[in-house]
């Protein structure tokens, strides 16, 4: 019977195919998934320690179901921190962060700003890169958040991602 100092909820947002499921499953189960049903939404848990605190992380891997019933507001309600993911080999997914994900979350929360991290995923595929690191950094500055490049394949910076997200979530809890 374990007790945790914190229970944190992190939502993973971004366009289809950017690696939301792969990031989530690689971090929580240390498995790289070659192919995962793009319509499955699920919640994953992982126990971590951070600055001597026991933390239960709940990670929401968002995905649009095949039948249309807009789940977006429910995802926003779940999340204390928003991980906004694009793929560095997909320019379109980069544009979607500002045009769609960032704005929808902001409108639903009805606030000036909210806790988030910008992620450029698939850094291992740098030879196919369509979005320069500089672009990611500029967007993060505009959105007032950190920028991290990750690879769900090699695992690069995934711990960093969830470490930063957890810090933000704890901060958010303390502010309330
Ligand atoms: P989602 O729609 O955002 O959940 O995207 P998925 O997690 O299903 O990933 C889409 C495809 O990209 C899958 O074939 C993954 O194996 C692949 N993928 C995801 N992340 C990475 C990565 O960091 N590097 C590489 N090489 N492939 C990745
Ligand atoms: Mg998915």
TrEMBL record:
<protein>
    <submittedName>
        <fullName>Ras gtpase</fullName>
    </submittedName>
</protein>
<dbReference type="InterPro" id="IPR020849">
    <property type="entry name" value="Small_GTPase_Ras-type"/>
</dbReference>
<dbReference type="InterPro" id="IPR027417">
    <property type="entry name" value="P-loop_NTPase"/>
</dbReference>
<dbReference type="GO" id="GO:0005525">
    <property type="term" value="F:GTP binding"/>
</dbReference>
<keyword id="KW-0547">Nucleotide-binding</keyword>
<dbReference type="Pfam" id="PF00071">
    <property type="entry name" value="Ras"/>
</dbReference>
<dbReference type="GO" id="GO:0007165">
    <property type="term" value="P:signal transduction"/>
</dbReference>
<dbReference type="GO" id="GO:0003924">
    <property type="term" value="F:GTPase activity"/>
</dbReference>
<dbReference type="InterPro" id="IPR005225">
    <property type="entry name" value="Small_GTP-bd"/>
</dbReference>
<dbReference type="GO" id="GO:0016020">
    <property type="term" value="C:membrane"/>
</dbReference>
<keyword id="KW-0342">GTP-binding</keyword>
<dbReference type="InterPro" id="IPR001806">
    <property type="entry name" value="Small_GTPase"/>
</dbReference>
């Amino acid at each position: 019977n374990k007790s945790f100092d914190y229970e944190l909820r992190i939502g993973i947002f971004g366009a289809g195919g950017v690696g939301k499921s792969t990031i989530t499953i690689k971090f929580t189960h240390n498995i790289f998934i070659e192919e995962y049903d793009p319509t499955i939404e699920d919640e994953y848990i992982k126990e971590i320690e951070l600055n001597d605190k026991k933390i239960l992380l709940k990670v929401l891997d968002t995905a649009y179901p095949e039948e249309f019933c807009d789940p977006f507001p429910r995802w926003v309600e779940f999340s204390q921190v928003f991980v906004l993911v694009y793929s560095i080999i997909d320019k379109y997914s980069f544009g979607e962060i500002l045009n769609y994900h960032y704005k929808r979350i902001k409108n639903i929360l009805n606030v000036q700003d909210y806790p988030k991290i910008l992620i450029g995923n698939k850094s291992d595929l740098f030879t196919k890169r369509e979005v320069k690191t500089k672009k990611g950094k500029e967007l993060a500055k505009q959105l007032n958040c950190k920028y991290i490049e990750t690879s769900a394949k090699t695992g690069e910076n995934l711990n960093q991602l969830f470490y930063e997200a957890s810090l933000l979530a704890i901060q958010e809890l303390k502010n309330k």
